[in-house]
Amino acid sequence: MRKFEYLKPDSIKETISILSQYGGKAKILNGGTDLIVEIRDKIIQPEYVVDIKAIPQLNKITYSEQDGLHIGATVTLNEISNSKVVQRNYPILAEACKTVGSYQVRNRATLVGNISNASPAADTAPPLLVLEAKVDIIGPTGEKIVPINEFFTGVKKNILKKGEIVTCVIVPSLRDEWTGVYRKQGRRKDVDLATVGVAVVCIRNEIRIALGAVAPTPIRAFKTEELLKGKTIDESLLEKAGISVLTEVSPISDVRSSQEYREEIIKVLVRRAILQAKGEHIL
Amino acid sequence: MKHKIRFTINREVKEIEVEPNKTLLKMLREDLDLIGVKEGCGAGECGACTVLVNNKPVNSCLMLAVEVDGKELLTIEGLSDGINLDSIQESFLKHNAIQCGYCTPGMVMSAKALLNRNPHPTEEDVKEALAGNLCRCTGYQRIVDAVLDAAKKGEGK
């Protein structure tokens, strides 16, 4: 690996000042499961690696009915999927976290890292999109809270500007009764990126749908959601939903799948995810 | 600039200076001669480099050595007491859960961590815990059998 300086600030303030000073020359080290591979493969060559794991307020996970779930930047995926509070209140998120990488990877990788890396295939993104999570960003000009739907801007790109850092992801309380599922299609069960990922939440008369690995960013399928709103789900409507979703995505062919296979699997997964979220027994 | 770090490894306290761009894997193999830990893919996909950090299995290829400052490490070399093998190692031998042996240290460390956190795993639990450890020889069945047997004996200390 190319040489770099290792910095370990113990406050958000200090981190922002380092990031502001060095700009693109500095990279945040959180779980490291993406960063270290990218440095090794010379995809990035930072001069400063900024380890944020010594910042006390970033490793907290809290929940209240009033404020929802707050997941700090350095909370690992295993900590989330093992959290009783997450299992009880957001089972879809606990399940999705368990689909990332391997057990070893999930002991290091974080949810905030997963979304900040902004891979189109990020497994935690579709569930966060249907849960309408918010991203807490702190930077040189202060704090802002952005809907996750506005966070991703392109393949491996997000809205973070120079000096800014995601400190926390906030998942709101849904108050009404709801159900949700995340379905992932991969070539093998573990240690693979999603070929397609689909998250569905049923709440009131709404069905929310989000997908990963089918467009430059993880996306909500708003048009299809509108089509399903308030209607009784039957086979003919599910077929229409599948066709509608395909107009909202732009899957590519890559090492994991052809475009055609992705399109087919999108329809299958959307159908299965809706039925499963509705409590139907399916394979 | 080198960083001075202090950590416990296989129950022994160590203090050394490391370059920040050195992975934990490289430090273990090159500086501490702990060559039981193996490099397979170097990208967190094969699990051959699995070691325990604060009792949790991690890919040592995906961690910087400087990050283990203040932490407690266990590698395959620290499992036996020098005379008696760990029950998981015994069980791997009994079940012939080894062919070429390259994946074995990582497999054993993942299994060790599993039995530490869940002394009575189901077959499904074992498969989930070992899913990040690739083996190209055995077809996995003997490895799963070995871990289940070690657990059944209640010896997964």
What report would you give on this structure?
- The complex is a heterodimer of chains A (283) and B (157).
- Chain A is 33% helix and 24% strand.
- Chain A is built from 11 helices and 14 strands.
- In chain A, helix 10 (235-248) crosses helix 11 (259-277).
- The longest helix of chain A has 19 residues, at 259-277.
- The mean pLDDT of chain A is 96.
- With 157 residues, chain B is of the alpha+beta class.
- Chain B has 5 helices and 5 strands; from the N terminus they run ββαβββαααα.
- Chain B has a 5-stranded mixed beta sheet with strand order 2-1-5-3-4, covered by helices on one side.
- In chain B, a hairpin with a 2-residue loop joins strand 1 and strand 2.
- In chain B, helix 2 crosses helix 5 (141-152), helix 3 crosses helix 4 (123-130) and helix 4 (123-130) crosses helix 5.
- The model of chain B has no long low-confidence stretch (mean pLDDT 96).
- The A-B interface holds A 1-6, 29, 32-33, 36-37, 39-40, 49, 51, 53, 78, 101-105, 107-108, 189-191 and B 1, 3, 19-23, 42-45, 47, 50, 56-59, 61-64, 66-67, 110, 128-129, 131-134.
Topology of helices and strands:
The complex is a heterodimer of chains A (283) and B (157).
Chain A: E1 5-7, H1 12-22, E2 26-29, H2 35-40, E3 48-51, E4 61-64, E5 68-72, H3 77-81, H4 84-89, H5 91-97, H6 103-106, H7 111-117, H8 125-130, E6 134-139, E7 142-147, E8 152-154, E9 157-158, E10 165-171, E11 178-185, E12 196-203, E13 206-212, E14 219-220, H9 222-228, H10 235-248, H11 259-277
Parallel strand pairs in A: 1-3, 2-3
Antiparallel strand pairs in A: 4-5, 5-10, 6-7, 6-10, 8-9, 11-12, 12-13, 13-14
Chain B: E1 3-9, E2 12-18, H1 24-31, E3 50-53, E4 56-59, E5 72-74, H2 87-94, H3 104-117, H4 123-130, H5 141-152
Parallel strand pairs in B: 1-5
Antiparallel strand pairs in B: 1-2, 3-4, 3-5
Question: What is the straight-line distance between the termini of chain A?
Answer: 45 Å
Please state the CA-atom Rg of chain A, rounded to the nearest Å: 19 Å
Count all strands of chain A and give the number: 14
Q: Catalogue the unreliable spans of chain B.
A: none
Order of helices and strands of chain A: EHEHEEEHHHHHHEEEEEEEEEHHH
Write down the CATH topology of the largest domain in chain A: Uridine Diphospho-n-acetylenolpyruvylglucosamine Reductase, domain 3
The pLDDT mean of chain B sits at: 96
